[in-house]
Write a structure and sequence with these properties.
Radius of gyration: 19 Å
Strand content: 5-15%
Order of helices and strands: EHEHEHEHEHHH
Structural class: alpha/beta
Distance between the termini: 11 Å
Largest sheet: 5 strands, parallel
């Protein structure tokens, strides 16, 4: 299942959605208090099943997932998320009140987590890590918008190259490239040796494909100028 495009375009001021998954209401309340300063949309889920339903309805920038939950625990929930094409690239931060040592941490990363944090955690550190993934998500949205604009312009300009818009979008893409490079450097610094985020790698691949499309339009004899990268 693939994510369906929204009927209305994302604006640069559109808030990102952050999914908070924990079976204890007091933990959800604490997470909301910590993350409220980010001024994004916080969505609660009190179980793994409820989280999976929420993921069917909305796009999320990041998921904060409790490990110890009755029924479907965090590891099983993460496995379901990573099996879905539409959600596999959403970063997951595991939160746990129990530290079972390196084996448990390794299991978290093996399940697809970008981080594994033991409670009690430093609120500032958690907020900083979440903010990085929110920013990465926003850049991904910008990239989707620019590719969509270029597609529309090409469809409306058969047999010609939309040089004016192309130059503008190319400049915007350069700004996104620079921002994403800075964000991924920050992620690498925060990872403490953990493999870098799949989300960051996915976004960088999409940027490379869109840049190749721009280059093809600038040099139409080199390749098919109408071949644009997919949105997935």
């Amino acid at each position: 299942m693939r994510r369906h495009p929204r009927s209305q375009p994302h604006g640069l001021n559109t808030k990102a959605k952050i999914l908070l998954v924990d079976d204890r209401p007091e933990n959800l309340l604490a997470l909301e208090a910590i993350l409220s300063a980010l001024d994004q949309t916080l969505v609660r889920a009190s179980s793994g099943e409820e989280a999976l339903k929420a993921l069917l309805a909305d796009d999320f920038a990041v998921i904060l997932l409790d490990v110890q939950m009755p029924g479907m625990d965090g590891f099983e929930t993460a496995a379901h998320i990573k099996r879905r094409e539409a959600t596999r690239d959403i970063p997951i931060i595991f939160l746990t009140a129990i530290n079972h040592g390196p084996h448990s941490t390794f299991r978290g990363y093996a399940a697809g987590a970008v981080d594994y944090i033991s409670k009690p955690f430093d609120p500032w550190v958690l907020r900083a890590k979440v903010s990085v993934f929110v920013e990465l998500h926003m850049k991904n949205v910008q990239l989707q918008e620019q590719a969509a604009l270029l597609r529309l312009e090409l469809e409306g300009s058969p047999g010609g190259s939309p040089t004016g818009l192309l130059a503008e979008l190319s400049a915007r893409l350069a700004a996104v490239e620079e921002a994403v490079e800075a964000i991924t450097r920050e992620l690498d610094e925060m990872s403490d040796g953990v493999p870098r985020s799949v989300t960051a790698d996915h976004l960088e691949r999409r940027i490379r494909r869109l840049r190749q499309a721009f280059d093809a339009l600038d040099h139409p004899d080199a390749s098919d100028a109408t071949a644009l990268p997919s949105q997935g």
